[in-house]
Write a structure and sequence with these properties.
The protein is α/β, with parallel strands linked by helices and about 325 residues long. It contains eleven helices and nine strands.
């Protein structure tokens, strides 16, 4: 059975704060480790009052320090926001502190709005240099050459697996060209999923990093004791998506019995979030099995923006039970 992993946005729920979000993140990571999840990834976002994972490398260190065996990494670090050398130093530090457990997933989007991008001292055109920045970053992890004037310390000579993340064909092609593992953000950007996977596998070139293509797909999972309960939990994510599209992102709200969305907003959310497994264990298992069969993925990474922390834990526990029942 393929590995299952967790993607966490460290949600800040309505009436709470980032400190509580971090406590919930570590608690979920510890449970995920016990339940047999393979990786625990955190995503970089900025100027999002409902997401606490802006300082992604710092949060990775917090989670890795509070766990023992699970791999911890970024899903992802938005490379256009950072100098490649700084990222190499950050993840070289993490890999030195937690050897054999750190992943570096890289994204091309800024993870924020244009004004915040400028506040980060980066500009929209920075995404144009993404391929060169990835190659530069990979270079900082190679052993330093004799007399090399600038080195990543720590970083040079360390084994930090680098992944490319994407929601279109661009990163799929680049991952194939560089011989890197690839993760597709199908949990919110489903349109190019199958085209990207086909392109990545067809054009993949073996490299020092990877001998054959390795693709991970993302899915929203909302598992509960009944379909009705799970559908209600899912309304928190739907509401967050609609609010973002309205230009009014906020904290993660409690489930909504009677959401006030227009038919167009509901359709937009349904389209973007269509790769979601929502329901009882049997319903979620059927959806996960179908998704894995369709994608032939090498790994599944699941995310769940669930308002109640106990319900969120239970959802990931049910998914872990499903994996075991599937032969994991």
């Amino acid at each position: 059975m393929i590995p299952f992993s967790v993607l966490d946005l460290a949600p800040i729920t309505a009436g709470s704060d980032a400190a509580q979000a971090f406590r919930n993140t570590l608690d979920l990571a510890r449970h995920a480790e016990r339940w047999g999840y393979h990786r625990y990834w955190l995503a970089e976002h900025h100027n999002m009052v409902g997401i606490a994972s802006a300082a992604t490398a710092v949060l990775i260190g917090y989670v890795a320090g509070g766990t023992s065996t699970i791999r911890v990494g970024s899903g992802g670090v938005m490379l256009p926001n950072h100098a490649p050398l700084v990222v190499a130093e950050q993840f070289g530090t993490l890999a030195s502190l937690y050897p054999g457990r750190i992943d570096l997933g890289l994204g091309r989007a800024p993870g924020t709005d244009p004004l915040t991008t400028r506040a980060l001292r980066r500009y929209h055109a920075a995404a144009d240099s993404f391929p060169d920045d990835v190659v530069e970053l990979l270079g900082w992890f190679r052993p330093a050459a004799p007399g090399q004037a600038v080195q990543a310390v720590p970083g040079a000579g360390l084994d930090v697996p680098v992944w490319l993340l994407g929601s279109s064909l661009f990163s799929a092609r680049l991952a194939a060209q560089l011989g890197l593992p690839f993760a597709f953000a199908s949990h919110f950007a489903p349109d190019y999923l199958f085209h990207a996977l086909e392109l990545y596998r067809r054009e993949f070139r073996p490299s020092e990093h990877l001998e054959k293509p390795h693709a991970m797909v993302a899915m929203n999972v909302f598992a509960a004791e009944s379909d009705r309960e799970a559908q209600l939990l899912f309304t928190s994510l739907q509401h967050q998506f609609v609010a973002l599209r309205r230009g009014n992102p906020g904290q993660l709200q409690p489930p909504l019995e009677n959401p006030a969305w227009t038919p167009e907003e509901a359709a937009g959310a349904a389209h973007a979030l269509r790769y979601s497994a929502i329901g009882s264990k049997a319903t979620v298992r059927a959806a996960v099995e179908r998704f894995l069969e369709q994608t032939a993925a090498d790994e599944l990474i699941a995310t769940g923006q669930i308002y109640d922390h106990r319900a969120r834990l239970r959802s990931f526990e049910i998914l872990a039970e499903i994996r075991k029942e599937m032969g994991g």
